[in-house]
Structures are given as C-alpha cells and as structure tokens.
Amino acid sequence: MFYWLLKYVVLGPVLKLLFRPDVRGLSHLPRTGPVILACNHLSFSDSIFTPLIVDRRVTFVAKAEYFTGKGIKGWLMRQFFSGTGTIPVDRSGGKAAQAALDTLLRVLREGGVAGIYPEGTRSPDGRLYRGKTGVARLVLESGAVVVPVALLNTDEIQPTGTLIPKIKRVRMRFGAPLDFSRYEASKGDRFVERAITDEIMFELMAMSGREYVDVYASKLKTTISSTSPPGASVPADR
Questions:
Q1: pLDDT in tens, 72-115
Q2: What is the DSSP string of 109-132?
Q3: Where does the record place the Phospholipid/glycerol acyltransferase domain (predicted)?
Q4: At what angle do helices 190-208 and 134-142 cross, to 10 degrees?
Q5: Predicted local confidence at residue 228, as pLDDT
Q6: What letter would DSSP give residue 64?
Q7: Which positions ≥6 away from 57 have C-beta within 8 Å?
Q8: Is the pLDDT of residue 26 over 70?
C-alpha cells in the first residue's frame, strides 16, 4: 500500500511535474507475466525514476547500508526503501548476495517485475561496465523475458556525492524484450550465463550510447580507492 501511495499520491505526481520524463519504448514492457528490467546504473536516483515510470510494481535490490543508516536521514532512507519493496543485499558476496537473488526469483515466479543493475554497482565515470551473471541466473531459473532500460542522463541530474538533484528532464529508453528461452536447458552453464549477460549489456550499450568497458565497475572502484592519496575524493558506491 505504501508503494502505491508514494507512487501515485505523495512523490510520483511531484517528480513527474519537476523532471518531465522523456520516455520512449515503454510499450515494450509486457503487461503481465514475469519481467526483468535490466538497467544501466548512473545515479542514486535510478531506483526512483524507473519504478515511477512503469505502471507495474517493480522490485529492486539495494545495498544493505541503506537500511542501517543513523539519525533522521538514515530513518527516512530506511522507511523509503522498505516501503517501496526494495530488498537489501550484502554485496560482500556469498550467501547474502544469493539471498537477494533468491528473493527476486520469488518475485518473478509470482509473475512480477524485478529490477536489476547487471553492472552490480553504479558506474564510477558514466561508462558502461561488464555485467555480472546474476541477471542470467535469474533468466534461466525464472524463464522471464528481459527488458533493457537505458537511463540516459540521471548522472547529470544527481551526480555522485550530491544529495539534492538538479531539476532537469530525465530521459529513459525501454528496449524490446529479450527472450532467452532457447537456453532453458542450460541452467548452471557458466558460458551460457556469460553469453546472456553480454547480450543484455550489448543492448544497453547500443541504447544508451555509453562507452563500454570490459571490466567490472567494482574492480575499478577498488583500484581507484587503493591508489588514491589519503584524503582524496573517491566515488561513493550507491
């Protein structure tokens, strides 16, 4: 109930008025059945604008730190993400990360819409990075179609490290559904998982016009962090 209240009464109308979404291809989104929205990730605001545009309920995962913040800001963020059905994930890996994927899989098996950022983290510099194969495992286990979603300028609206977004028209593109049913007999095949993931990333590259980098964004962030001098600014991970 809180999800729909935020979307249609509290936040949705105000955000649409301020940011005047320029959305194309939304008709590609199936009205029923399990769907994975595979999005590039440029800004904290991506997880706000995408569910705002889609008529169906969208379930995302977000880093666990959003649910453990202190003070008023921490409480507000916790209430917002909990109320919108966002799932916390411990991105240190292992069983915690798998638990989040399992929850998204449950959403898909119930015929819902799961949102995921195949890059696994926000882009540190606006380029598109190598996708992680969790999205492919969801595809193979659920049989869901994948709708690629290109966010074109959310990094301009809310750059890394900023709290207050700039008032600017948000631009989004929804691609035609990708059907991977031809791989349904290949669950657990890591080569197939990589092929599915790379196909999704290729679509996101073509739709977004962003330069593609064949390394994991998380690895680049680790490198930047380890080579930065003390006190230097390092892109925050959201």
A1: 767 777 777 766 678 777 666 566 677 778 889 999 999 999 99
A2: HTT-EEEE-TTSS--SSS-EEPPP
A3: 35-154
A4: 110
A5: 56
A6: G
A7: 3, 4, 51, 85, 112, 113
A8: yes
Q: For residue 54, is pLDDT > 70?
A: yes
- d(CA 62, CA 238) in angstroms, rounded, equals 8
| CA–CA gap between residue 100 and residue 102 (Å, rounded) | 5
**What is the sign of the dihedral through the CA atoms of 94, 95, 97 and 101?**
positive
Report how far residue 11's alpha carbon sits from residue 4's, in angstroms, rounded to the nearest whole number: 10
Output phi, psi for 87, to 5 deg: -100, 125
Residue 236: count of CB within 10 angstroms of its CB: 12
Q: In this structure, are residues 116 and 47 in contact, taking their beta carbons and an 8 Å threshold? A: no
DSSP, collapsed to helix, strand or coil, labels residue 171 as strand
pLDDT 10s digits, 107-127: 999 999 999 999 988 999 999
| Element housing 104 (H / E) | helix 95-109
Give the H/E segment covering residue 37: strand 35-39
Backbone angles phi, psi at 228, to 5 degrees: -75, 140
Percent of all residues in the chain with a pLDDT value above 90, rounded to a whole number: 62
Phi, psi values for residue 193, rounded to 5°: -60, -40
* Both tokens assigned to 102: 């399992």
**Spatial separation of the C-alpha atoms in residues 60 and 56, rounded to whole Å:** 13
- Whether the CB-CB separation of 163 and 238 falls below 8 Å is answered with no
Q: Which residues pair with 21 in a beta bridge?
A: none
